[in-house]
Every structure is written in structure tokens, then in C-alpha cells.
Known about the structure:
The protein has helices at about 5-15, 55-65, 100-105, 150-165, 175-180, 190-200, 215-230, 250-270, 275-285; strands at about 20-25, 45-50, 65, 70, 75, 85, 95, 125, 130-135, 170-175, 235-240, 245-250. It is an alpha/beta fold and about 300 residues long.
Amino acid sequence: MADPLPADRFLAALLAEGVRVQEHDGWRTHNRNHKGAWGPVHGVIVHHTVSSGSDATVRICRDGYSGLPGPLCQGVITKDGTFHLIGHGRCNHAGGGDPDVLKAVQDESYSERPPVPNVGNTDGIDGNASFYGWECENLGDGKDPWTAAQLDTIERASAAVCRAHGWSAKSVIGHKEWSDDKSDPTFAMPGMRQRITARLAGVSTSPPQQEDIVTPDDIQKIAAAAAAATWNYQLPNVQPDGTRDGTKKAAFWWLVWQDVFQAQLMAAISDAKMTPDEVREALADGTLQVQLTVKAA
């Protein structure tokens, strides 16, 4: 049991843990405190958003939607590992949950997992008063990958709050562990609690896993999708004499230059070790640009 961290101390705790924070306008006073209690707090609940695209995800979590006003959490963790501070105070994230789970979190009395919840959002006790909430950008379909940067930030942000309050990693649970009608997040929480425990003890966490790194197969799929969507990848329009006259979009040249395009795209990102989702977003927003170089036949 603890009073919520004041806004400045909350921010300082995140920064001290090495969290990459982006502050959004008005976050210190953006809350639902007029609807109920905020505190005492007992832990952190981790969620997934069932959304894609960082800007859209942050906007939804900040503003909410019909029937569920924002903010929907204190922090949004996007695919690139950025922790977006959008609220401070009571937020619409936890909903109803199991009082036995709350007791186990308070006492930090469980082993690998808290007790299985037997009530849910509509018939459980208020969790918005008792938990910080991280909404994490993910489709929640079991196929959308969790990036290494994102998991690292979940670990760091959770450890920051635990360290500030003197809690162990058992104060960090998934929404699916709080409410019997939730399935988020899709990764295993015991493993995340192990990571948080190691961080709190000053032990280095594991490096990014190989499956989080872009492979040639990922590049083929990304490049094909880009061409099919006629995204604005500009390629040289090579004349018979070898001169270049303007450009044409990738969709027009895809069948001719696909192998070259994929190889050069892979080379452009190999050193960055970006995840597939990060590559798609970087291509879409223009932060990653590839100038395809080809030779006339």
C-alpha cells in the first residue's frame, strides 16, 4: 500500500531507470480523478492495445473513445520502446478485477503467478484506483511480435515504479491476471517478472532475441507489401541508352527489380537491427529511406 508518486517524482523514477520518455502536453493533470479514488496504489498492470501505429495508439490512449474516456493509462509503450507519458492519476485501464488477486499483489504472497481471477470487468472491484497502467502497442492476436525495445521499456518502467515504492516484481501483473475476461498481454508475465527482479537486483537483462531481428524473409514480405500498396518508393526510370529519365513508383518496377530492392533494403537496415514492425513504420513515416541503385542492362 502506498500513496501514488507525485508527477515529478514519477518522471524522475522513469528517467533514473533509463526509460526513454516522451512527455505529452498536459499529462500531469490529465486523469479521471473526478470519477473516483486514485490510491492507495499497490502495483502495475500491463496491457496490450489491440492497435497498430504509434501515433494512432497514443492518441486513442490519451483521448479514449465512445463509452470509455481517456486517459486509458499513465503510459503508452510503443513499438520503438518509447514511454509516452499521457496521464497522471486515475486512468481507465484496469476496470474490475478479483479481490483475491489484489490481496496477493498487496502481500506479494504468490509464487510464480497470482491466483486465477474469478471475476471480471463488470463484476470485480475497482482496479483503476489501485494500479498504474501501461498500455503497450500490440494487436493482441498472438502473431504481432513484441519488440525487444518494447519489452525492455516494460521491464524498466515497471522496475522504476517498484523501486520507488519499495515493491518487488510481484507487484507487476498482466490484465489477464487481474480480470477473468481479459487476455492481455500476450507474452508470459512470469518471464517479465523475472526480468524485473533481475533489474531490481542490478543484474543485466538478456539481449534482444534473434526472432526480434529483421530477416530476409521479413524484408521480402515488407517490400512486396510496399510495392502492392504503391507506396512512394522512387526508382530510376532507365532508358535503353543507360540514361535515367525521372522515376517510377516501385509497384511498376516490382517484377523487374524485386531482388535488388530487397537486397539493398536489407543492407540499409542490417546495422540498425530493427524489428519488422519498426521497419514498416520507419518506411511509412519517412525516417528510413532507400534509394535503389540499378544498372542499365
